[in-house]
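Quick question, first post here. What does this chain look like in 3D?
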Amino acid sequence: MSLTGLLRRWGRRLRRSDAAAPSADNGDPLLKAADSLRALLADASIPAEVRVELAADYAEVEAMLGRLEQGQIHIAAFGRVSVGKSSLLNALAGSAAFETGVLHGTTTARGQQVWSEAAAHGVQLIDTPGINELSGEAREKLAFEVAKRSDLILFVVDGDLTSIELDALRTVAAQQRPLLLVLNKADRYREDELAALRARLLEHSAGLIAPENLLEARAQPAPERVLRVDAAGNEQLETVTRAIDVSALRARVFAILEAEGKALAALNAALFAGDLADSVGERLTRLRSEIAARVTRSYCLAKGVAVALNPVPVADLLAAAALDVALVVHLSKVYGLPMTRAEATGLLGTVVAQLAALMGAIWGVHLVASALKGLSAGLSTALTAAAQGALAWYATLLVARAAERYLAQGKSWGPLGPKRVVQDIVASLDRDSVLREARAEILRRLK
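> Answer (accepted):
Ran it through. Tokens below.
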């Protein structure tokens, strides 16, 4: 199996890991997650180009490994602008740790603070920018990235879910992190309104949020205007400060921490490691495709020019076959599945047999052109060489595409078999366009 396939299988295995369910049989989930992250960092088979492109992700792996070693758990508040995420975290922390204000979207960057009340669990509270901030694509991206790397997410709303919030909730839920839906500013509603709103939220978040994970909070309740009547019957309006109430949320969070504290961090690390393994695999696939395209073009050009210049009948076809074998060997190294010349020759034979069945007439023209070029003692070379070289170019391109498909599937033709694979490749290429480009390039080189 190719490295790409192994990485993807590793990613799936990490996601299915039992890190979220520690037991005496499975050992410490934190240690298992840390081992997975160290293996990612130490994998010497990942090319330098891929590491450079994914440098930020690798830095995050380093940071996550440090978090695991220090026993930290990250809890992030996530949601629309001005739903009170910062106020909610301040209420939990019991201090003004996060900036709040009357401006639309006060939080513009990731904020982080130790939750002293949960120090035994190593909890860090994280604030994120609003996901619908106007002209704030970068902030929205940051918010999603923070949520993705958090061990427990508080999705904060202040009313029924908007379409933007519902889409975001689905996105976050799909990341498989533990998730609580928090209805903040509950003080704005009467009891009957709260009951109706809770029912709507449960309906709209069905399948995403368990009923016990929908919680109400009053993180920064507005003052209440109360009409007082004294003994003399005089009426007077008074402003009464209402108490902050995040007790239900605090209780739920602590219940989760007590039951699953270490497993939260371990699960998130395993999920992140799996995501990164997939990213590495996808980047490797793109990188190999880019390298393979350059290698293929070099062999197409070499074969096209060689065939065009060779005046000996049919001998140019033999030389072309040797180049095709060398091409297959080269591509096998690009895909990390080295093949011997014998293996490459066998693969080439399979591809050519299918091509011959599909395009017998074309190979007949190729043979005639080769014969004409020799019999005319070079007089007709100017008329036939470029066309014959272009046909050789096209044939090599078909061989390369078929070999790539075979290698990308771990030295397998897959369920379709070689005949269908070759048919699909032939159908996908615009032969006339390829021949025109090849003929023009060959003529340029010949001149």
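The chain is about 60% helix and 10% strand.
The first helix runs from residue 3 to 15.
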